[in-house]
Structure to design on (225 residues):
């Protein structure tokens, strides 16, 4: 079945450092790929998405490129801020028997220190 | 923000009692999902719905049932709550070709 593997955390960085959170996937067909962010006590919010190979999703300084050849969708940001501290989830969605079911990784906690 | 409301937001219940969580949407989206979130496991799908009265099981459906009698409401029922069902439960909605939108979550504690 479909699955998403992302690096375990927590990832601890100083403010203005470069961020990479790795995500790889296994899926049948051609999935859409997503990064979600969860702040403490809240639900998940969509951060960015890509729907086909070589697409780059971007939002709020975060970027991720859909790499079909390596089945990856790594999240990057050039300069993190304290306010970026949250849990980040990589996800994919494929159609299974006509139903669109999102599959999530386990989440990576990011802690940014001033 | 997408119109998704989960109720209650917090609940403490005793082992063996029935519990129903409600997810209400105002977006008229076709797909609705129930996930549970636990440390070390991320989000795991319990049940989902692809239309009124059309539901199917996810990877952790044992001990849970769902119902969807109208487009806007998706109910998750724990027939006889157990301590292993202590978790944070999230409802999500989506439409064809679109991303999923999440509710704020329900924190359930079974004592």
């Amino acid at each position: 079945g479909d699955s998403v593997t992302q690096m375990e955390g927590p990832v601890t960085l100083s403010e203005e450092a470069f961020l990479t959170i790795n995500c790889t996937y296994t899926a049948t067909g051609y999935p859409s790929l997503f990064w979600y962010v969860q702040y403490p006590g809240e639900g998940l919010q969509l951060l960015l998405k890509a729907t086909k190979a070589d697409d780059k999703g971007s939002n709020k300084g975060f970027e991720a490129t859909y790499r079909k050849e390596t089945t990856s969708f790594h999240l990057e940001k050039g300069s993190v801020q304290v306010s970026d501290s949250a849990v980040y989830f990589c996800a994919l969605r494929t159609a299974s028997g006509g139903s669109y079911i999102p599959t999530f990784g386990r989440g990576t906690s990011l802690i940014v220190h001033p | 923000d997408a119109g998704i409301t989960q109720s209650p937001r917090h609940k403490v219940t005793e082992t063996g009692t029935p519990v129903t969580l409600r997810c209400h949407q105002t977006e008229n989206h076709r797909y609705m999902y129930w996930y549970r979130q636990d440390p070390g496991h991320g989000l795991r799908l319990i049940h989902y719905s692809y239309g009124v009265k059309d539901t199917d099981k996810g990877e952790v459906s044992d001990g849970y049932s769902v119902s969807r009698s109208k487009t806007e409401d998706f109910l998750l029922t724990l027939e006889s709550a157990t301590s292993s069902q202590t978790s944070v439960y999230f409802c999500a909605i989506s439409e064809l070709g679109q991303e999923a939108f999440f509710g704020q979550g329900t924190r359930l504690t079974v004592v």
Summary: Chain A touches chain B through 22 residues (CB under 8 Å). Chain A has no helices and twelve strands.
